[in-house]
Structure to design on (125 residues):
């Protein structure tokens, strides 16, 4: 099993950037595919981005494609979400999730057994 802790959220203005990170504990981080989801009050938790354990493949929701980038540093047991050109609609609690190896259902929260507690991102206009 792997434990996940997010950090790096904050309060910013539209157009600014943030780089939340998700630190994992355990000894098998490199074996896990990682993802970021977000939840806004009144909405279901939605998929944001995912990266396979190899780092070769990445996936993005249409709403963030071209603005967000997911990447990982396996030596540091950490996955990052580079968030550029932030918009008010990006305001949410951002969660990282882990899945051993890979699934074709990578965009579904139901397939991820490991979750962090989330970090708040607030974007003002």
């Amino acid at each position: 099993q792997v434990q996940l802790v997010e950090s790096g959220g904050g309060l910013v203005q539209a157009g600014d950037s943030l780089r939340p990170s998700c630190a994992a504990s355990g000894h098998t981080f490199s074996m896990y595919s990682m993802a970021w989801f977000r939840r806004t009050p009144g909405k279901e938790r939605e998929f944001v981005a995912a990266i396979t354990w190899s780092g070769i493949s990445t996936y993005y929701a249409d709403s963030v494609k071209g603005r967000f980038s997911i990447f990982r540093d396996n030596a540091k047991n950490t996955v990052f979400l580079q968030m550029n050109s932030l918009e008010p609609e990006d305001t949410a609690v951002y969660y990282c999730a882990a899945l051993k190896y890979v699934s074709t259902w990578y965009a579904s929260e139901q397939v991820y057994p490991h979750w962090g507690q989330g970090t708040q991102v607030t974007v003002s206009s």
